């Protein structure tokens, strides 16, 4: 098993290039020997072909993660200070590999002025080779989680509440059960909820760490 997650990409490439060069050198040496062992030679060539395939076709590629807009699924509010909001959070993961990409269980967190006021689980799943998959969940926000904040009454009266959603996905791409690459994605969205218009806008950004 070769695990290149977290390793220096340049170092990993140099190591595999050395393997190719050594395999080629040994193969050429065997060709010059009259008593070369045929079975060993064939095995060596197979190893060389496998490494070449890794570089050209099967090399694990970094998954692409796109944070979609956080959407307002439902809202109920009233006076005095009554609020029930459902937000839909969705991330699209694009797996460009010839093997599967599996991500672990995770959680979406919704924060209001720096304090977490709601959360929802994301269930682990596996994305097949060369497929896209929408990872999403619904988060419920209740007024009783917001009222303790000193700014809530002012924001509520102004008709606009600002939230931040954050999601972290830990995953691993596997090719032929031999080569693996680990990736962690961090998705953050700034969400503005407008009470009178009953809609929401969001600006999202994603960071990937290997």
From TrEMBL:
It comes from the Eukaryota. It comes from Nyssa sinensis. Pfam families: LEA_2 (PF03168). This is Late embryogenesis abundant protein LEA-2 subgroup domain-containing protein. Gene3D superfamilies: 2.60.40.1820. The lineage of its organism: Eukaryota, Viridiplantae, Streptophyta, Embryophyta, Tracheophyta. Residues 91-182 form the Late embryogenesis abundant protein LEA-2 subgroup domain.
